[in-house]
Design goal:
Strand content: 25-35%
Strand order of the largest sheet: 4-3-2-1-5-8
Radius of gyration: 18 Å
Helix content: 25-40%
Number of helices: 6
Mean pLDDT: 88
Distance between the termini: 62 Å
Number of domains: 1
CATH topology: endopeptidase fold (from Nostoc punctiforme)
CATH architecture: Alpha-Beta Complex
Structural class: alpha+beta
Order of helices and strands: EHEEEEHEHEHEHH
Low-confidence stretches: 184-198
Length: 198
């Protein structure tokens, strides 16, 4: 009996994401991997704090918080064997236990632009990380080496099936059976509170 994993490509709208988009000419420039369709177990490499883009590394992501609150996304499903699923989970579990050792491979990201593989010990950028984890699945490996993997390369994998494209919060709310939060600006909230007294 097989299992399913999920590849999430997203656009958080940050300056860093926009800068990458200028090179890739793509809208979705962040890649994550999840082990459930509700995205409770979602992992990647990125900023550890939404307020500090220079402090990056291995992270367990919460799709309802921080930069993801206004993100757009494409979510792909991939069927894997039980052994492949376990292999990926074990690899991530080992990384999570030693997450302080891992850092964001910003130098490697620069080398992608000139098509040169730059592997650094315990350092990954988001799509390099996802591609490395998916090496546990022979039928779902990318045609490019992980140090050259870009988020849009996952769209080309025949083993992946597009399940959703649109607002990330809409997807998460539907899968978790919760009402989608309404994000209102501070000034909008202030105006509404004033209006309520008039």
């Amino acid at each position: 009996m097989g299992k399913k994993i999920y590849i999430i490509l997203s656009n958080t709208g940050t300056l860093f994401s926009k800068a990458i988009g200028m090179y890739t000419k793509k809208d979705l420039n962040h890649a994550s991997i999840a082990f459930d369709e509700e995205l409770n177990e979602m992992y990647s490499f990125g900023r550890k704090s939404s307020h500090n883009p220079f402090n990056g590394g291995f992270i367990k992501e919460n799709p309802t918080e921080g930069l993801f609150q206004r993100a757009t996304c494409a979510i792909y499903e991939c069927e894997v064997t039980d052994s492949e699923y376990l292999g990926m989970k074990n690899k991530i579990s080992q990384m999570e236990k030693q997450k302080q050792l891992y850092k964001y491979n910003l130098i490697g990201l620069v080398f992608v632009a000139i098509n040169i593989e730059m592997e650094r010990e315990n350092a990954f950028f988001c799509s390099q990380f996802v591609a490395t984890i998916m090496k546990e699945c022979p039928s779902s490996r990318l045609q490019v080496a992980p140090p050259l993997a870009q988020p849009h390369h996952f769209e080309q994998l025949s083993a992946l099936t597009l399940k959703f494209k649109g607002n990330l919060q809409t997807y998460v709310s539907s899968k978790r059976n919760v009402e989608q939060p309404i994000h209102v600006s501070v000034w909008r909230k202030y105006a509404l509170s004033i209006a309520s007294f008039m």
